Amino acid sequence: MTSQVSSPAEQADGAVVGEQRKPASEKDVRRLDRVIIRFAGDSGDGMQLTGDRFTSETASFGNDLSTLPNFPAEIRAPAGTLPGVSSFQLHFADHDILTPGDAPNVLVAMNPAALRANLADVPRGAEIIVNTDEFTKRAMAKVGWATSPLEDGTLDGYSVHPVPLTTLTVEALKDFDLSRKEAERSKNMFALGLLSWMYHRPTEGTEKFLTTKFAKKPHIAAANIAAFRAGWNFGETTEDFAVSYEVAPAAHAFPTGTYRNISGNLALSYGLIAASRQADLPLYLGSYPITPASDILHELSRHKNFGVRTFQAEDEIAGIGAALGSAFGGSLAVTTTSGPGVALKSETIGLAVSLELPLLVIDIQRGGPSTGLPTKTEQADLLQAMYGRNGEAPVPIVAPRTPADCFDAAVEAARIALSYRTPVLLLSDGYLANGSEPWRIPEIDELPDLRVQFAQGPNHTLDDGTEVFWPYKRDPQTLARPWAIPGTPGLEHRIGGIEKQDGTGNISYDPANHDFMVRTRQAKIDGIDVPDVEVDDPHSADTLVLGWGSTYGPITAAVRRLRAAGESIAQAHLRHLNPFPRNLGTVLQRYEKVVIPEMNLGQLATLVRAKYLVDAHSYNQVNGMPFKAEQLATALKEAIDG
Fold first, then answer.
1. Which of 1, 167, 294, 632 would suit a FRET pair with 585, their CA atoms being 20 to 30 Å apart?
2. Which residues pair with 20 in a beta bridge?
3. DSSP conformation class of 551
4. What local confidence, expressed as pLDDT, does residue 2 receive?
5. Whole-angstrom distance, CA of residue 362 vs CA of residue 492
6. What is the pLDDT of residues 87-145, one digit of tens each?
7. Closest by alpha carbon to 555, among 612, 584, 595, 605?
C-alpha cells in the first residue's frame, strides 16, 4: 500500500489535502483527510433531514465536522424554482476543522434548480450527482435553461454521475402499498444511502431514526429504510461509482471526553438549563416565535422535568413582559428573538435596566432591516444591542463564536445577569443557530456556581435607628441592588419605569439624583468582571485580525492558511462586547494594522475606532452567507502587504 500523508500545515482547515489510496477487492477505496458535501433540492425534498442524518452518522463515526444549512424563508416556495432551493453543506475531516468549507467536493442536485443555484460554488473536477428524472424541458425552462446541461457541455470539467434517483426509488418500493407520489418522497433516503456507501458512513443510526420517526406509520418507516438500503446497494453494484472514500475519525482533534453533535440553538437551550440548575432557580422563557430563534422555544418546552416553564406569547412585547415579570418573581428569566423582535422589546429592555433585574435577551441575528432575510445570517444588530434604547440604558453584550460555544455563552450571560442584576443581550446568529459541530459534554463540577442570595430582611438603618429595606442599596463590589422576592414580609418596594431615588427606590425627579443614577448604572456595566482578550500571535506580527461572534471559524481558518504559507499575522476574538475586555486597548496599540472582518458594514470597527482611537480597517460582507476562508485569507494578505 502506498500513501501520501498531509503535513500539519496542509491539514489546516480549508487547506490542500492529501489522499491515501488502498486497493479493494472489487472497488477502489481512497482515503481522504477531509470532504465537503452539499445536498441540494426543493425545500420539500428533505435536504435538511438528509444532511442532518448524514451529519449524525458522521459525528458518531468520530470525525470533526461543521455544517451550513441553507434554506428559503418561504414555507413552501414554488417547486422547481431558484428561490425554492434548499441546501445542506457538511465539511468533515480526520483533523480539526472550523468552517463548513468554501466549496463542495460533491454536489447532490435533486433537480435543475438545485444544480443551477449551486453550480457556481462547485470547483472544476468536483463530483456532481444529478437526479436525471427531474431534467425535463419544463423543469429546465423554469430556471432558464433551453437545453439540458447534462448534454450541452455545461458540466464539462466536472465528474458527473447521472442517476435516475426517482425511478430507482419507485422501483425499490414497488412491493409497498404506496402511490407513486408517496414513493417518490423517499428519493432523499435513496440519495442518503448512496452517499453513505460512498463515504463509508454507519447506517444503523439512520435506520433506527427512521423507525422512531415513523413509529405510528410503520409502513412509511419500512419504505424509507428500503429506499435507504437501495441507495447503498446501488452504490455497491453500479459501475458508475467505481470508487468509494474513507475519512478516518479525528482521533487527535479532541480532548478526552464524551461528545455529541450539537447545533447552536440546541447548545443555547442546554446552556440555559444548566445555568438555571447552577443558580438553583426555575428557568422561565417568555417568547414569540421568530426565525431563526424558534428552535430554542421548541427545545425548552420539552424540559419541564428541569423546572423549565415556557410561555408562547401573542407578540414580542408580551413575551419579554412576561419574562421580566418572572425575573421580578425570582426566576432565571429569558426571552428569545431576532433583530425585528429586539426592536419591539426595546422599551421593556429599558425597563429592565431601570428596575435592575436579571434578564437574558437572546438575539439570533438575521439579515435586515425590517423582515429582511429571515433564514440568512448577519451580524448587523451590534449597534442596536449597544444603543437601541431611549436614554442612557447600558446593557452587557455577550457573543458566542461557534455552535458549541453557545452553551458556554449562555452560562456566561446568566452569570453576568445574576451577579450584576442587569439585562444581558446575547448575540448569536443564523449561521451558529442552524450550524452544528461536535461538543464535549462538560462535567457538572466544571460549571460555575451561579447561586444568588435573595434579600431576607432590612438592609439599612435610618438616622432614628429604624431598620428598613432599601431596594436600591448596592453591593459595593458589583453595584448590584438586592433581589427581593415579592411577598417577602417587610421587603415591599416600588417598581416601575419612572426614575428611582438612590437607595430608597422612591420616585424621583431630582436632577442631581437622575445624574447620579445614570452614572451609577453605567459604572455597574463598566465594572463587570470579564476575562482579558487572548491574542494568538506566535511570531510577533505587525497585523492583528480582530473578530467577534460567528466570524471566528472563517477568520481562524484564513489565519491558518496564511501562516501555512509563511505569513505572520495575529488573531484575537471578542466574546464580551460591552464592556470590552480591559486589556483590549493595550492589545490594539501593539499592532501597526488592525483588520476587523464583520458580516455588517463595520459596526465593531466603529466602536473600536471611537473608543480606542485606533485606525481599524473594516472588511465587510452582508450577503446572508458566512465568510469563506479563502476570501478572508486573500483580504488579510492584502492588508499585510498594503
1. 632
2. 31
3. G
4. 32
5. 30
6. 999 999 999 999 999 999 999 999 999 999 999 999 999 999 999 999 999 999 999 99
7. 595
Nearest CA-CA partner of 49 in 39, 59, 58 = 39
- Cα distances (angstroms) measured from residue 531 to each of 159, 440, 525, 571: 50, 22, 14, 16
Question: What was the pLDDT predicted at 26?
Answer: 65
Give me the pLDDT at residue 251, please.
Answer: 84
Buried b (16+ CB within 10 A) or exposed e, 406-428: bbbbbbbbbbbbbbbbbbbbbbb
C-alpha cell at 335: 426571552
Supply 21's cell numbers: 489510496
Q: Under a CB-based contact definition with an 8 Å cutoff, are residues 608 and 383 in contact?
A: no
Which residues are CB-neighbours of 423 under 8 A, at least 6 positions away?
349, 352, 353, 357, 358, 359, 360, 361, 395, 417
Which DSSP string do the residues of 456-513 spell out, in sequence order? -S--EE-TTS-EE--TBPPPTTT-PPP---TT-TT-----SSSPBPTBT--B---HHH
Ranges of residues in the chain with a pLDDT under 70 are 1-26
Contacts of 24 by beta carbon, 8 Å cutoff, 6+ apart? 244
CA 372, 374, 379, 381 torsion-angle sign: positive
d(CA 397, CA 603): 14
Q: Are 296 and 336 in contact (CB under 8 A)?
A: yes
